[in-house]
Specification:
Blueprint (H helix, E strand, L loop, with lengths): L8 E8 L5 H12 L19 H6 L6 E7 L3 E7 L7 H10 L2 E7 L6 H12 L3 E7 L1 H6 L5 H36 L2 H7 L18 E5 L4 E3 L1 H7 L1 H4 L3 H7 L5 E3 L4 E3 L13 H18 L6 H9 L6 H4 L4 H12 L2 H12 L3 H12 L12 H16 L9 E11 L27 E11 L1 E3 L3 E5 L11 H4 E5 L2 E6 L2 E5 L1 E3 L3 E5 L9 E4 L18 E7 L5 H14 L4 E4 L5 E5 L2 H15 L4 E3 L6 E5 L6 H9 L5 E4 L5 E9 L2 H9 L1 H8 L10 H5 L8 H19 L6 H15 L2 E5 L6 E4 L12 E3 L4 H6 L20 H9 L1 H13 L11 E9 L17 H4 L2 H19 L2 E15 L3 H10 L3 E7 L5 E9 L6 H8 L5 E11 L11 H7 L9 H13 L22
Parallel strand pairs: 1-3, 1-4, 4-5, 5-6, 28-30
Antiparallel strand pairs: 2-3, 6-7, 8-9, 10-11, 10-19, 11-18, 12-17, 13-14, 13-19, 15-16, 15-18, 20-22, 20-23, 21-22, 24-31, 25-26, 26-30, 27-28, 29-30, 31-33, 31-34, 32-33
């Protein structure tokens, strides 16, 4: 790896929907350019990159793996094959971070699917240069029996759809950039105006050479420029002119020998576009000649003679026409040449790519460069410039990024080093009796030179070089044991790796959990964190069958947590070991790895622990009435502390749905804002995630999103005649947004605590715990300096000591609110989208003197600490208020995309109906008998869904599930028939069966060990025994 020049390196990944042909394509590239790793005869059927038994058994890729290819003995191409299944989207993130370009595959028959959107978003987020590969072109001929013109229309539509997705990403960035410029100072606008350019050009254009048309299974493929070169002499036009004309509405006029538009061909002629006439029709003729019994076999000989193809006579005389066809086409239009030449021409080398991607990898930090940290900042900026320039000189600071750790059995490690010396593989941390697995880091060198035996600093994502107290916590020093070049499953030892290369590093197993930045200096900012498309939602509790194996299980869970970039291992409040995975397939693989590799013990796995949330009934149209009731003193729950000194009144209302979603999605950003991290040294991960300009103020952006959400819900739910009403509602919401005291649960949740209205008075409880608009100040709704203020009403009863006591109780009120929102009244699940106003008033102790010290311990004996009483009373009052406002259960929903043949639509709908699914739309795929159905399926009903669907449709239907949103169940869990019609329909209250919401609540309560109201004896009858005694 030392003798490869950086401009000749390409780092690429293959991204696509599941079963669109990524691993098959990789097979052909490896067979052609990887020094004989795969025989050409086996290419496409071996699936070399799927070396795990589970991958071969299921025929899907489950992890990203790398292989090094050589093209024309000049170019060094690092190819990463990634999974297409949604459960393994974390592997796509790790592959995208280490790559500079992406081959995006789309099935020419199935077209763009949901995961295609996801991988294009990932490529856009990571700033990769994408190329489009339209795979399975042969299915248009042999399966769908399309004519060349119909096939062209389908291909044009797919390219247009993919360009539309990329255009949406560009528009999103364009609009955010315009908003930023309009929000800035006037002088700044003029300077930065050139940053925003209206880029209307399509991303993927076949005439540009970044679109390939291939059949990966048969090993052939082409780009337009290859056919342009074929026809240069025949048509008498330049290759450049033909390349532009071979896609789009361009026609060849046989009489004038000119390339013309549609009008130039005349109205009545049956003209075909040049792509159909000169590219697709010859392909169709070759297929018909080979596959049809009465086909013109001389056509194959004509192709062989015209292009001087070297096809063995043995293959031409084969009885299977598919073998004959493959022999001719794979030599006429070699797949590897088309793809690798496109990679070399259309994708950037590491030097160009890193200068473009630097703002994503190492975003600039806004810090003041004065004081003792100026030297640290100067060196950190030098490191950033080295990464931007991809400086591969030995003097440059060495920086690498580890995107994941993967486990390799020790017996699979190379036994000899790069110089042929025998290696001692037993000295690694993974082999010291703990496990037979060794952990290897999957990394890319971004600057400098990495070599075996080098000592580097391992920086976690939270590391800050400016804070001395974080030095020990988020930085470690480690020695690199060995470096390897990855060749699929195999590892090839190398002595060193220069900037721009992808390597496997051994020796970091004890220092890195998931991902980290490696640096030769401590004065370096860590790379930005990886962005995952979904979060692990499927949770199960795990325990060993034999309790004595608990130690082995815990050790195995630690190893699994390190080996899988997406799995989450935790211990629940009840002491269970909980494993969180992305979906059923991911969970099954994790359990199998635990049993067979990491823990090697028999396991008991609980039913899935489905997350729920709790809310109250409420409509957007009732917002104004709710706000008015919240402003008044009516409709509240009142509770007093056991000692009677504090009276707590709680009111609750439902937040607008859009505001709830904004708060939920911005949890990380809110944590940074409320914690005061922003504006100092760290940029928010949310800003980077959204793909916007890094200079944008995240607090401004979040405040604007909150305002837009409130305004959108208010205006969207009102008619034209209700504009005045909507304006009043908006004005009231603006007032309330200036009174945000806290968010919950965990200080960042989608529930809001407002400060109480101090206008009311109470003679019995004269002092109000006012709180402060702390969160509103941080979000910029009010000036922080004007917050709070504990000025009490002048009264003979109110003393300064009582005011100080009220001020000290603020944290108790917030803690009670946090406890209540973390565990709701229905089944102790977190609350969702609720706003609380908590008015806590305290009274002085009877006979209290000005010296509070002598009375401060009086309540301890009987009722406990006063602050604890207030906290508990606030929690109980909040939960009671929710119960009185028609509580509802909120469940997570999957977006489900199904593909089904027409004859199996009935069984598919039956399966969906049993799973409480809601069908959104169905449409027939043009040119095929497949229907695409979109539906929402509750997460709680999704377990075993794919298996049941395959069973009922004889394997003809496929489904993909993606976590979509949270949705409240409309059913009242405490429904009791009251009206005559309800009693007639459901019977009296004693015989009404529990509805779905109540069943789900009872199941969660049973699982948590909470009391459940149920009949112990369902059908009471006299006991009968076998024996009859007279």
């Amino acid at each position: 790896m030392a003798d490869i020049e950086c401009p000749n390196i390409r780092n690429i990944c293959i991204l696509a929907h599941v079963d669109h042909g990524k691993t098959t394509l990789a097979d052909h590239l490896i067979a052609a350019a990887a020094d004989g790793l795969v025989h050409p005869k086996q290419a496409g059927r071996l699936r070399f990159m799927d070396y795990l038994d589970e991958e071969q058994r299921r025929a899907i890729t489950m992890k990203s793996s790398s292989v090094t290819l050589s093209f024309n003995d000049i170019y060094h191409i690092n190819l990463i094959d990634s999974p297409g299944h949604m459960d393994f989207c974390s592997e796509v993130s790790t592959a995208a971070r280490l790559s500079d370009g992406a081959l995006v595959l789309v099935d020419a028959v199935e077209g763009v699917h949901i995961q295609t959107h996801a991988v294009l978003r990932q490529a856009w987020t990571e700033r990769l240069s994408p190329c489009l590969v339209l795979n399975k072109i042969d299915r248009l001929i042999s399966e769908l029996k399309l004519s060349p013109l119909e096939a062209y229309s389908k291909l044009v539509r797919i390219v247009h759809e993919v360009n539309g997705i990329m255009s949406a990403f560009k528009s999103e960035k364009y609009l955010s950039d315009v908003d930023l410029l309009l929000a800035g100072p006037a002088g700044e606008n003029l300077e930065n105006l050139e940053l925003v350019e209206d880029d209307e050009e399509d991303t993927f254009q076949p005439q540009k050479g970044n679109v390939a048309f291939v059949c990966a299974l048969d090993g052939w493929g082409f780009r337009i420029n290859e056919f342009a070169e074929f026809y240069v002499s025949k048509l008498g036009a330049s290759a450049a002119a033909l390349q532009k004309a071979l896609w789009g509405p361009k026609y060849y006029n046989q009489k004038t020998k000119m390339i013309v538009g549609k009008k130039g061909m005349g109205g009545g002629s049956k003209a075909r576009p040049m792509f159909v006439q000169f590219v697709l029709e010859p392909l169709w003729q070759v297929y018909q000649a080979a596959l049809e019994p009465d086909g013109d076999k001389s056509m194959l000989q004509k192709v062989i003679k015209s292009f001087n193809l070297n096809v063995p006579a043995r293959e031409l005389q084969h009885k299977d026409p598919k073998v004959v066809l493959q022999a001719v086409l794979s030599r006429w239009l070699p797949l590897s040449d088309a793809i690798l030449s496109m990679v070399v021409k259309c994708m950037p080398d590491p030097m160009r790519a890193q200068s473009f991607r630097i703002s994503r990898l190492l975003p600039k930090r806004e810090v003041s460069d004065d004081g003792p940290s100026s030297n640290v900042l100067a060196e950190a900026e030098l490191v950033r410039k080295s990464v931007e320039a991809c400086d591969f000189s030995p003097e440059a600071p060495c920086v690498a990024f580890v995107s994941k750790m993967f486990a390799v059995p020790i017996k699979m490690l190379p036994q000899r080093g790069p110089n042929g010396d025998i290696l001692n593989n037993s000295t690694d941390e993974g082999g010291s009796g703990e496990s037979d697995e060794c952990f290897i880091a999957f990394a890319r060198v971004f600057s400098g030179v990495l070599f075996a035996g080098q000592r580097v600093f391992v920086l976690s994502a939270l590391y800050d070089p400016l804070k001395p107290e974080s030095m020990q916590k988020h930085v470690q020093e480690a020695e690199l044991h060995s470096l390897y070049l990855m060749m699929g499953q195999g590892l090839k030892p190398v002595a060193l790796a220069k900037a721009g290369n992808i390597v496997a590093i051994r020796g970091l197993g004890q220092h890195i959990l998931k991902s980290a930045t490696l640096s030769s200096t401590k004065n370096c900012w860590p790379f930005s964190s990886l962005v995952f498309q979904v979060s692990p939602t499927l949770r199960v509790a795990i325990e060993p069958s034999d309790p004595t194996d608990m130690g082995a299980l815990m050790k195995g869970l630690r190893l699994l947590n390190r080996a899988d970039p997406f799995v989450e291992v935790s211990v629940s409040a009840r002491g269970e070991h909980v494993l969180a995975a992305a979906g059923e397939v991911h969970l099954e693989r994790c359990i199998k790895d635990l049993k067979d590799r990491f823990a090697r013990v028999s396991l008991e796995v609980s039913p899935p622990l489905v997350p729920y949330k709790e809310t109250i009934q409420g409509e957007v149209s009732d917002l104004l009435e709710n706000l008015k009731s919240l402003s008044g003193s009516l409709d509240h729950i009142e509770r007093k502390t056991p000692n009677g000194r504090c009276c707590v009144r709680v009111q609750v209302l439902k937040l607008p749905p859009s505001l709830t979603k904004v708060l939920d999605k911005s949890a990380d950003l809110l944590g940074d804002i409320i914690g005061g991290k922003l504006g100092q040294s760290n940029k928010s991960s949310e800003t980077q995630r959204s793909g916007r300009l890094e200079d944008e103020n995240p607090i401004e952006a979040l405040r604007k999103r909150i305002m837009d959400a409130v305004e959108g819900d208010i205006l969207g739910g009102s008619e034209e005649s209700d504009k005045d009403r909507a304006e009043k509602c908006k004005a009231m919401w603006l007032k309330f947004l200036k009174r945000i005291w806290a968010l919950g649960p965990r200080q960042i949740g989608p529930n809001i605590l407002f400060t109480p209205d101090s206008r009311g008075e109470d003679a019995e409880f004269p002092v109000l715990v006012r709180g402060s608009s702390h969160v509103s100040g941080r979000l910029g709704f009010v000036d922080e300096s004007s917050n709070g203020g504990m000025d009490a009403e002048p009264s003979s009863v109110v003393t300064p000591a009582l005011c100080r006591e009220a001020e000290s109780l603020e944290s108790s009120v917030i803690s009670g609110f946090q406890l209540a929102t973390a565990a709701g009244p229905l089944c102790e699940e977190p609350m969702w989208g609720l706003a609380f106003v908590i008015e806590a008033r305290i009274s002085p102790l009877e006979g209290q003197q000005s010296d509070e010290l002598e009375t401060s311990y009086q309540p301890l004996e009987q009722y406990g600490i006063f602050t604890g009483q207030v906290m508990n009373t606030v929690k109980d009052a909040c939960r009671t208020a929710v119960l009185q406002k028609k509580p509802r259960l909120v469940e997570a929903m999957y977006f489900c995309e199904l593909n089904t043949p027409t004859e199996y639509l009935g069984p598919m709908y039956a399966v969906l109906a049993r799973r409480r699914a809601r069908v959104l739309k169905e449409e027939m795929q043009e040119g095929s008998s497949l229907f695409t159905v979109h539906a929402y399926v509750p997460v709680s009903e999704s377990f075993g869904f794919a298996d049941e669907l395959r069973r009922w449709t004889s394997g003809a239907s496929s489904a993909l599930l993606v976590l979509s949103h949270w949705e409240a169940l409309p059913e009242d869990p405490f429904f009791v028939p009251k009206t005559e019609e309800e009693i007639e329909e459901f019977g009296d209250g004693s015989s009404v069966l529990h509805n779905t919401a109540r069943k789900l609540i009872d199941a969660v309560r049973r699982q948590k060990g909470l009391p459940v109201e149920e009949k112990v004896v369902q059908h009471a009858t006299k006991q009968r025994t076998l024996a009859r005694k007279v």
